[in-house]
């Protein structure tokens, strides 16, 4: 019941649908009070899962996890790692030793969804100190588990993992919103009846629709985005509609209210809040551009950005990149496609919607087989 949980479940069910037997183990689950067995439906059956409550001590969870693996005797164990999933401060010392007790007899892969904090030159001293400890935990994790394959999502993380003497491979992220079966041309009219007349018929070509999906980072400069969007739109003879969908968070809601204060003939803001997956997909299919509130080097690890790209949207990134010691700006942006940083959007075109999940699952299997 979180981002990494969704990722793992979706990857496992896709693999299962293509003939790979998969089992899921939640080793530190905050949403169950006792060990819970369940199944997640897949195209040709179901993926069994064991959820172990985080409130239970490590010895009890380890016994259950070891028994689970011995029953299965898997060819591979894939660890989906976020340090904060095991400790609220991200300081789970001894994690490598514990995971080795579970997977030491099997071929092992690690996916680092996140690494250590305090990596940019702009970080606080506190984050740098915590980050040094987390780096030691990850180094020990690699030493204890000796994985045959290591994956991560971003070129930045790949570069930093290399400083530990480990070659990580990039495994792209897929979106967390399934593509709607049918594109509903009148979707916006249903959600915004009082303003939809402005976009009806040929008037639609006079507007650029931008979509913000999910939480809005407090450091995102909404006013800078508004001014730059309006300037680009003025040159192209367009007007701007910004749609926010999903849980924006407290800072995000304040930002949206501030942007609504500037509404006029050429600038409108529609805050839809939390919606169903179907409605989010329809929103992404309706828009012209996605907007990311993350720094450009972090868009590779954003499920919302992946969802935008899967729905065919060019993505506008308006925050500047951080600087990182011993890491050139060129490294940060390797592989950035369909993403722009300087609001040169007039020439961008939407692409055909397609799910990245089958491609990612196929690459995952290929990387394991080649090892």
Structure description:
The chain has 371 residues and is of the alpha/beta class. It folds into two domains: 3-174 and 360-370, Rossmann fold (3-Layer(aba) Sandwich), CATH 3.40.50; 187-355, 3-Layer(aba) Sandwich (Rossmann fold), CATH 3.40.50. Helix content is 37%, strand content 19%. The protein is built from twelve helices and 13 strands. It has helices at residues 3-17, 58-72, 95-103, 125-145, 155-162, 187-191, 222-236, 249-260, 277-286, 303-310, 329-332, 357-370; strands spanning 24-29, 36-42, 45-53, 76-81, 107-112, 149-152, 169-170, 207-213, 239-245, 267-273, 289-292, 315-317, 339-340. The strands form three sheets. A six-stranded parallel sheet has the order 10-9-8-11-12-13, with helices on both faces. Strand 4, helix 3 and strand 5 form a beta-alpha-beta unit. The protein starts with a helix and ends with a helix.
Notable characteristics:
Rossmann fold, 2 domains, alpha/beta, six-stranded parallel beta sheet, four-stranded parallel beta sheet, 13 strands, 371 residues, globular, single chain, 12 helices
What is the secondary structure topology, with strand pairs?
Blueprint: H1 3-17, E1 24-29, E2 36-42, E3 45-53, H2 58-72, E4 76-81, H3 95-103, E5 107-112, H4 125-145, E6 149-152, H5 155-162, E7 169-170, H6 187-191, E8 207-213, H7 222-236, E9 239-245, H8 249-260, E10 267-273, H9 277-286, E11 289-292, H10 303-310, E12 315-317, H11 329-332, E13 339-340, H12 357-370
Parallel strand pairs: 1-3, 4-5, 5-6, 6-7, 8-9, 8-11, 9-10, 11-12, 12-13
Antiparallel strand pairs: 2-3
Helix pairs in contact: 1-12, 2-3, 3-4
